[in-house]
Amino acid sequence: MSDLDAFRTETREWLEENAPALIRQPIRGDEDTVWGGRNAVYDHPDQKLWLERMGAKGWTCPTWPKEYGGGGLSAEESRVLAEELARLGCRPALFSFGITMLGPVLIEFASEEQKRRFLPPIARGEIRWCQGYSEPGAGSDLAGLQTRAVLDGDEYVVNGQKVWTSYADLSDWIFCLVRTDPDAPKHDGISFLLFDMASSGVEAAPIQLISGSSPFCQTFFQDVRVPKDQLIGKVRGGWTIAKRLLQHERSMISQLGTGGGPRAEGLPELGRRYLGGTEGEPLPDPLIRDRISQFGMDRLCFGATTRRSVDAAKAGRGAGAETSMFKYYGTEMNKRRTELAVEIAGAQGLGWEGEGFSDAEVGLTRGWLRSKGNSIEGGTSEIQLNVIAKRVLGLPD
Ligand SMILES: Cc1cc2nc3c(=O)[nH]c(=O)nc-3n(C[C@H](O)[C@H](O)[C@H](O)COP(=O)(O)OP(=O)(O)OC[C@H]3O[C@@H](n4cnc5c(N)ncnc54)[C@H](O)[C@@H]3O)c2cc1C
Predict the structure, then answer these.
(1) Dihedral (C-alpha) 259, 260, 263, 265: value to the nearest 10 degrees?
(2) Do 385 and 249 sit in the same domain of this protein?
(3) H or E element: which one contains 178?
């Protein structure tokens, strides 16, 4: 038996023994997503147990080094783990901007001391992070940001405002872009700072959306004092880190294109439920059948391409500007998928609330509306096309 086969057997046995039954069921909605943090909310004790067990093994961040709270797995082992988790239909133990965005740049840019301080609590889900990038006058033109950090002794004093800060009101810490040198050219005057959202002078005000929910905030900083050892990388070196983090974010968002993870019921199953027909026979509506098949083929191709790119990145051939292609295509695919799901469900796919709609149907409607934001968050589709033109195709400005 090869080492990898032995690892698969071991992993399978561990998961069979340790994944609680609830965790093997599909995610129904927000109540089933665990974000961890100091004020973590668990809808069921099994969610906490699952996070603790996976966190203790480092399997929330399988490829991070063990000394930073990760699982220390190779790329191949991590793929086996993902396959075994999928085999049992396990939900992710943790949803975390710390894992998908901040952690990878800390591993690349932070000092040893900072890595040992910040990474293990991310892996165990103890600290929930939010992203302080966008400002009222700096979204696509992110380098135009104005939030100031001025060094005063051993501390930076931060003043300014961020906007669209997802879950700022629920997060413990923020990774924040600040201007430390207002006289330098705009990209060169930015630094990357971490601080506690409970610091004096931080205020997060939720923005009420038309849907009634408030996933984002306006975030205000007034004379927030931040120890200078919480600056990552070089002073004025924040733009390089910011761009790298965006590449990780864009990779993460692009994965929505491959099907939405454990939350999503597959399109063929939806088709069977709403369009009828005989089990084992093709769906009765040829047009919908054709679109589902086309989506399935595109999904497979996209999945294979992104996987090849992840392998290339792990082999040191860098995940760089091409993440913009994946972000652009993956978010368009996710919009296509949710649109098709709503069409298949017909009037039942347009419910907002009320007895006439099941939770899953309301989830379809909300998922479809939410997907519209995919091509804005992490940089809009137009900005991705600009990056592809300049950095991938080498076209002139
Ligand atoms: C769901 C969601 C979650 C988010 N979460 C966060 C978060 O947690 N933290 C955070 O910091 N931000 C967050 N954002 C903000 C997001 O990063 C910005 O909305 C995005 O970068 C666009 O910036 P903007 O809204 O200021 O739009 P603008 O920059 O004002 O753009 C307006 C329009 O002009 C177009 N445009 C602008 N410049 C160009 C150009 N040079 N070429 C072509 N077209 C252009 C854009 O594509 C867009 O269509 C989130 C956004 C969404 C939708």
Answers:
(1) -30
(2) yes
(3) strand 173-179
Of 134, 139, 142, 172, the C-alpha closest to 40 is: 172
The residues, ordered by sequence, that sit 6+ positions from 170 with a Cβ below 8 Å of its Cβ are: 35, 37, 39, 128
Predicted pLDDT of residue 32: 85
Q: What is the DSSP letter of 27?
A: P
Residues with CB under 6 A from ligand 1: 130-134, 139-140, 164-166, 216, 373, 376-377, 379-380, 382-383, 386
Stated as kind and residue range, the H or E segment containing 202 is strand 202-207
Contact 342, 302 (CB under 8 A): no
Active site residue 249: yes
Report the atom number in ligand 1 closest to the C-alpha of 381. Answer: 47
Closest CA to 375 of 333, 319, 320: 333
Q: How far is CA 251 from CA 178, 283, 291, in A?
A: 24, 33, 25
Residues 133, 106 within the same domain = no
* Pocket probe mutation, ligand 1, options 163, 253, 327, 376, max atoms within 8 Å of Cβ: 376
Range of the domain at 35: 3-123
The per-residue pLDDT for 30 is: 76
Instruction: Tell which atom from ligand 1 comes closest to the C-alpha of 370.
Output: 1
Six-digit token pair at 268? 């063929």
Pair 288, 151 in one domain? no
Query: Of 236, 252, 282, which marks where a domain is finished?
Result: 236
Q: Which residues contact 13 (CB under 8 A, 6 or more apart)?
A: none
Phi, psi (rounded to 5 degrees) for 41: -115, 130
- pLDDT averages per 10-residue partition of the chain, 397 residues: 93 97 84 92 95 97 96 93 93 95 97 98 98 97 98 98 97 98 97 98 90 86 98 98 94 78 68 89 92 92 83 64 91 93 93 86 88 92 94 89
Q: How many residues does the chain have?
A: 397
